[in-house]
Backbone:
């Protein structure tokens, strides 16, 4: 067997090292951009909680001095003390849905206006709901609201203000601008046997998701 001389082994080793270094140099200096591809997609997710709230403009209705048997309505300037009403009944309670869901609003007299024995809400204390904004969609009859929509101001359109228990007087009130407000007017007749003096009623409105 022929032995390989030390000089030959050294020469072969040098050649191998040169080849290896040449390959490394080429791999490091050759353009790589054409060999790189890729892509990425992202997503954004957010969950918005429902909010429920109402505000009231003109929280006080002040009628003028009255005699037993007098009738007063909140949308007539002459019936109010120091008020200047406009054509859209702004002297009533103006309630706006400030939340982000449709709401029902209940109404109840929680402190009585009159004390006489003959007092009857059906005769002496009535209310009416009128849409303050033309964009409000009228609720269909039988939709669950105890008062029909849209409210009117004729003799048959007033409803006795409840005191023993609240009732839903406003239903499916929208929350978008232009269709998120309603007016509540009062029709008051002083009982003929009502004692004299200052009279004050408290009317409570409570909103809940429709």
Residues:
């Amino acid at each position: 067997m022929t032995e390989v001389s030390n000089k030959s082994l050294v020469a072969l080793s040098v050649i191998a090292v040169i080849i290896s270094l040449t390959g490394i140099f080429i791999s490091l200096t050759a353009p790589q951009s054409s060999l790189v591809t890729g892509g990425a997609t992202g997503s954004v997710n957010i969950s918005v909680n429902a909010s429920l709230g109402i505000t009231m403009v003109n929280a006080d209705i002040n009628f003028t001095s009255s005699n037993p048997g007098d009738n007063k309505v909140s949308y007539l300037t002459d019936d109010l003390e120091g008020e200047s009403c406009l054509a859209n009944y702004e002297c009533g309670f103006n309630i706006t849905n400030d939340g982000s869901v449709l709401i029902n609003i209940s109404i109840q007299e929680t402190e009585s206006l009159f004390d006489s024995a003959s007092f009857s809400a059906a005769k002496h204390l009535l209310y009416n709901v009128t849409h303050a904004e033309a964009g409000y969609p009228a609720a269909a009859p039988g939709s669950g609201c105890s008062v029909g929509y849209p409210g009117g101001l004729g003799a048959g359109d007033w409803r006795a203000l409840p005191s023993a228990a609240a009732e839903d007087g406003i239903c499916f009130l929208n929350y978008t601008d232009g269709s998120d407000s309603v007016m509540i007017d009062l029709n008051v007749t002083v009982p003929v046997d009502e004692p004299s003096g200052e009279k004050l009623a408290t009317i409570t409105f409570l909103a809940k998701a429709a």
In short: Helices lie at 6-29, 121-124.
